[in-house]
């Protein structure tokens, strides 16, 4: 039987290897981007690629290396201001909507910053860690994985805003369009059930505590809404019928001129993807939809959106915790298959739920600046469940609570119906 010291050494080695993989994946994502691509910011919510690469390094430097490594030398004193995101208790920060103004530091400086942080992090991980420090490193790695998905959705907005519509990656072969199974609604559990994270594996603080909920009789759709089905909603006047829309959603739709999903053309024939403009696959899940659009579609279809508890229990009964990623490098939803049961829970689109993002019973945010990670955002946002085609492998869980404002549509967000 290995000693405690031996187990700690193995754990540190595994964590070191995983840290290297996660950090290298961020660099792999920017392959093919120019320095100019990584500078641009086209919306306040969508940060430049260069900023993502620096901010994820700042997280390790600010919360781990400067606290746990005696004699650690910060790479640049001003980076603490430039690359803090929203941690108010950690200090002041550059305005979010002006991150694209930062022509300096350049990408070479940012990559040097990453290497500086990586070297110090690997030195730290060469020794056994306390449980609290290991948990903090785990948080930093999952934080970076979150930003890997944001990096892709943000650069997609940048490339789509360019009249040339350049691709991040070109496809080696045309996609094969696979018809999904017929839409069916599967019974979910009724009565008192438990949801939320429990156990020693990593989870964000907002995934717990595990607690009881009461569920009424309900049914969830076996798959996501397809492009063809959503196109029927558009052609049936769904964007012009105020009876289908929540008041705030209708006002926003009118002000913004929404008539179709983000990235679709006006003829409803093509959509912009990270592989450039492509024909819309009628069998693939509809994506880049706001909560308001998802809710309006559900009402048009004579259905509703599921609650997050209904979704979590359906996922827990359908799939194991392992193998939930779909990190193919194509980063676009695909069609279904001919299997039975609950499909497309993970690896296609995040799925809007009818649940407001709020704390679970008994939730307490961690002390200090890290406590700002999730808890302070529990207002005016909606929960999405599952994972998307851009979610890194190993980052999905049945208890994962993603959250965005109901107006947000630049993420890979889609629709699962419920009754």
TrEMBL record:
What this protein is called in its record is Ergothioneine biosynthesis protein EgtB
Task: Please name the pathway.
Answer: Amino-acid biosynthesis; ergothioneine biosynthesis
Q: Does the keyword Iron apply?
A: yes
Q: What keyword terms does UniProt attach to this protein?
A: Iron, Oxidoreductase
One Pfam assignment: FGE-sulfatase
Q: Which GO terms describe its biological process?
A: ergothioneine biosynthetic process
Q: Does the keyword Cytoplasm apply?
A: no
